[in-house]
């Protein structure tokens, strides 16, 4: 395998989507079909939730395994190159996720986080959890 240049790597990294990902689209389509109306990627809400039910104060995040550190204690050893870059970067993402969740929870939001693989394998179950949270919430934590 040919070694990539830093320009090639930079180009590839810029192609990574941060909204309207496959997992978000899957989940949003299912929620829409259920008659649940939401807003997406709202900048005014801390953490810019992928899906937000503003009146109900329910925020949904669709976390990809790579960027959000799924099974991190085992996976961080998978990096063979550029460990000094990737390990702190992903650990900061994990920490930021915790900070955002705590901040929103402190503000009375219900925060739901789903791993991408769970959305893909158990779409209906994830949508059920969201629907239940929306139906039971009156703008306060459930």
TrEMBL record:
DUF559 domain location is 93-133
Q: Name one GO biological process term.
A: mismatch repair
Indicate the secretion signal residues.
none
Q: Which UniProt keywords apply?
A: DNA damage, DNA repair, Endonuclease, Hydrolase, Nuclease
Task: Output the Gene3D superfamilies linked to this UniProt entry.
Answer: VSR Endonuclease
Entry-linked InterPro entries: DNA_mismatch_endonuc_vsr, DUF559, Restrct_endonuc-II-like
Q: Which GO terms describe its molecular function?
A: endonuclease activity; hydrolase activity
| NCBIfam families on file | vsr (TIGR00632)
Name the chain's protein. Answer: DUF559 domain-containing protein
Top-level taxonomy: unclassified sequences, metagenomes, ecological metagenomes
